[in-house]
Amino acid sequence: MNPKKVKEIIQLLPKDCNPRLGGSYNLYLRGLVDSFRDIDIIIDKGTIDKVNLPFPKIESFHGKGLNKRIKYCINGREVDILESINPADSIFNPIMEIWFESANNVIKAKEKINNYLKELK
After folding, report:
1. Phi, psi of 75, deg, nearest 5
2. Cα distance between residue 41 and residue 18, in whole Å
3. Residues of the chain whose pLDDT is less than 70?
4. Cα(4)–Cα(44) distance, rounded to whole angstroms?
5. Quick one: which H or E segment has residue 58?
6. What is the C-alpha to C-alpha distance for residues 20 and 17, in angstroms, rounded to an integer?
7. Which of 6, 20, 39, 52 is the most exposed place for a label (fewest CB within 10 A)?
8. Which domains does the chain have, with CATH numbers?
9. Which of 112, 109, 111 has the alpha carbon at shortest distance from 42?
10. pLDDT score for 62
11. What distance in Å separates the CA atoms of residue 47 and residue 35, rounded to the nearest whole number?
12. Which residues pair with residue 72 across a beta bridge?
């Protein structure tokens, strides 16, 4: 999915959710990783009930997670709207004109998720 479409999706979210690009797509656009699986858009904790995008939802087969989320299929790509598990730490990307979750927060979140999954096993 091209960055312009991602920007359009983020602009559909309520501003008071504080939407920002997270996950591996964030790191991919920064040149820190070579690939990405899906697109994660991070919103503030407690705001997921305000999200209702006009795209088909994907049923989540994960059990209880660290945060609330909604999965969508947009242009054949999985787009996850996720409540943050870290305090907001974002940087404005002037090229895309959207906020990016800090790389440090993306890495911290991945570590928390991996540790959580290890505990479940």
Report:
1. 55, 40
2. 10
3. 61-64
4. 22
5. strand 57-58
6. 9
7. 52
8. 3-120 (3.30.460.40)
9. 109
10. 62
11. 29
12. 57, 79
